[in-house]
Amino acid sequence: MNTEQMPAAEAQAEGNTYELAFHVLPTVAEGEVASVVDTIKSHITTAGGTITGEEAPARFELAYEIVKHLEGRNRKFTSACFGWIRFTMTGEAVEELSAEIEGMKEILRSLVIKLTKVEEANPFMFHESISQQKVETVEIDEADDSDDEDESDDDSEETAADAEDAVDGEDED
Question: Could you name the CATH architecture of 8-117?
Answer without folding.
Answer: 2-Layer Sandwich (3.30)
